[in-house]
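pinging the channel bc i need a second pair of eyes. not urgent but kinda urgent?? the chain im working w is below, pasted from the shared doc
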Amino acid sequence: DIETSGLSWHASIITVIGLYLVKEDERSLLQLVGREISRQRLTVALHGVDTVFTYNGTRFDLPFINAVLGTNPAAVCHHHDLMDDCWKNGLYGGLKAVEGRLGILRQTRGVTGREAVKLWQRYQRDGDKKALDLLLQYNKEDVINLSLLREKLVTLRL
């Protein structure tokens, strides 16, 4: 999952790339933030990953990454957009709406993509560490909840 400074890759940057790596019983979170974000670091982070799961990644995350970093994660590993699975089964809306319908909880309830942009701006403009911490928590919940969503979809056989 990515956070950005806006919706247009022509006029915006990627502020956070969050990856929740799941391998058998081992799980780990990796977040690249600000200047840490590069094609090389993303490539290294994805080394050995078989499948990348996203929500609306086909339309947003992957094209944004490709435009800004010049790399397409779907070229090095399989990409599966969970939004397609949800929509095929009547679960429409953004990730947060689907999470709500399936009982997946968030501590950052009420934080939106628009708010994520503002949190980054406060961090950049004012050095507001609490804003950055909230942005990272929001991104963390996004990526962990993708894993939970995937499990729910399998359990419900949707």
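so The mean pLDDT is 95. and The chain is about 50% helix and 20% strand. — does that match what u expected or am i reading it wrong
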